[in-house]
Amino acid sequence: MKAIKCGKLIDGQGGTPLENAVVLIDEDKVKAVGSEKDVAIPPEAQMIDLSDKTVLPGMIDCHVHTYGNGDPAPELKNLKELIPYKALKAVAYAKLDLDAGFTTLRDVGASGFSDIAAKKAIDNGLHVGPRMQVSGPILSITGGHGDSQLAPHVEVDPELRAVVNSPDEARKAARKHLKHGADLIKMAATGGVLSEGTEPGAQQLSYEEMKAAIDEAKKLGKRTAAHAQGTQGIKEAVRAGISSIEHGCFLDDEAIEMMLENGTYLVPTLCAPYYIAEHGIEGGIPEYGVRKTKQVMESHGQSFKDAYKAGVKIAMGTDAATPFNYHGKNAFELQLMVEAGMKTMDAILSTTKNAAELMGLEDKVGTLEPGKWADIIAVDGNPVEDIKVLQEVKFVMKGGELIKG
Ligand SMILES: [Zn+2]
Fold first, then answer.
1. Residues 336, 328: contact at Cβ < 8 Å?
2. Which positions of the chain have pLDDT values less than 70?
3. What is the longest distance spanned by two Cα atoms in the chain?
4. Could you tell me the distance, in angstroms and rounded to a whole number, from the CA of residue 63 to the centre of ligand 1?
5. Residues whose CB is under 5 A from ligand 1 (ion)?
6. Kind and range of the H or E element at 294?
7. Catalytic choice (8, 95, 186, 222)
8. Distance, CA 137 to ligand 1 centroid (Å)?
């Protein structure tokens, strides 16, 4: 038994932070949470004194790629790497996220199932790392966001990609991913910024292709995510039953209405364009990536504001791995969301309770309540007053085990 004395406690339910609270931990689970007056600490409990800190549930990043880390132009380099090396990188980068207070990650796209391998190594205790949901390769059309952009005579191992061009192929790819241990299926509903020759505004996978993959996931109770920037692709993904829209750069009123009706989450990833615009071509980012970022950025910010105002469910995601978007710096996304008008407590919920709900893990993580995993972090200061303090996490516990602090 462990007992944490908390200066302040934010339990992830959205209420006013509780002063002088106690969290009791039995093995890997939370046993009791409450005010010092109400929770009796058993004499044998090991005391952890965080009475000068604010204690929160472990944070969750719903959009990372653990195989990479901030490289300005990774495409060719990625193709020269062995898949086992990608998996080794994935455990190392996932650990950076864990140390930064992100006890749960959703990896939405890796080449060659390296994410699934990393997750297994962590779950089997071979490496220390966060809890992970993993998607394997992103389902993409030929020439789409997720396919390679190499010349036809350059052979790319099809196992690195999940290129599909019909509902049957989408169904088969989804089944294969699920067979190999994918927790969710990720698909490209539109073009993107960092894929040469694709248009962020243009739809890619058809409604029928997405529906086929989504239905396969649903049969096993699994969720789905769509890389979706352009308006039409967003709407078709929502209509097909997608769990979350990633990026959502060109949302119109109808798209927002559809997301509200279907309970679709938005994972904004404001970090990704921010860093690309900040570092630009001078930073070594390909010209097309910088150009397209500038085309989508303003609308991206506005879409986030409109969706938030309308009450669309928002889960935090960084797109960590994209240029200069480093693992371990994840909480910067919360600052960008707050700077765009989100209330600090809503930003905290987007990386705790809401994120857990998007992942279907609401019974296990996201809030500090009896019976949930003891995934706990602590910071100096009060994130409700200054969201930036979450960028300096001082204490990390995962499942009752001390990771940092
Ligand atoms: Zn991404």
1. no
2. none
3. 71
4. 6
5. 319
6. helix 287-310
7. 186
8. 11
Concerning whether 77 is annotated as a catalytic residue, the answer is: no
The answer to whether 364 and 28 are in contact (CB under 8 A) is: no
Domain 59-330 is in which class? alpha beta
pLDDT (0 to 100) of residue 151: 87
Instruction: Dump pLDDT digits (tens) for 125-171.
Output: 999 999 999 999 999 999 999 998 888 888 777 778 899 999 999 99
Give me 216's structure tokens: 């396969």
Q: Which fold has domain 2-57+368-404?
A: Urease, subunit C; domain 1 (2.30.40)
Cα within 13 Å of Cα(90), Cβ side: 35
From the list 319, 329, 372, 398, the catalytic residue is 319
Residues in contact with 200: Cβ distance below 8 Å, sequence separation at least 6, in sequence order: 190, 191, 192, 193, 229, 230, 249, 250, 292, 295, 296
DSSP structure class, residue 40: P
Ligand 1 centroid – CA 388 distance (Å): 23
Pairing of strands 18-26, 2-9: antiparallel
* Token pair of 45 as six digits: 């409990």
Q: What is the pLDDT of residue 76?
A: 81
Per residue in 214-235, pLDDT tens? 999 999 999 999 999 999 999 9
Q: How far is the CA of 404 from the centre of ligand 1 (A)?
A: 28
* Burial classification of residue 394, based on how many CB atoms lie within 10 Å of its CB (0-12 exposed, 13-18 middle, 19 or more buried): middle
Span 386-395, pLDDT tens digits: 999 999 999 9
Rounded to two decimals, the pTM is 0.98
* Domain parsing of the chain, residue ranges: 2-57+368-404, 59-330
**CA dist 321 → 26, 132, 156, 351 (Å):** 35, 16, 21, 18
Report how far ligand 1's centroid is from the alpha carbon of 33 (Å): 36
* 215 given a catalytic annotation: no
Ligand 1 centre distance from Cα of residue 109 (Å): 7
- In the chain, count of helices (H) and strands (E)? 12, 16
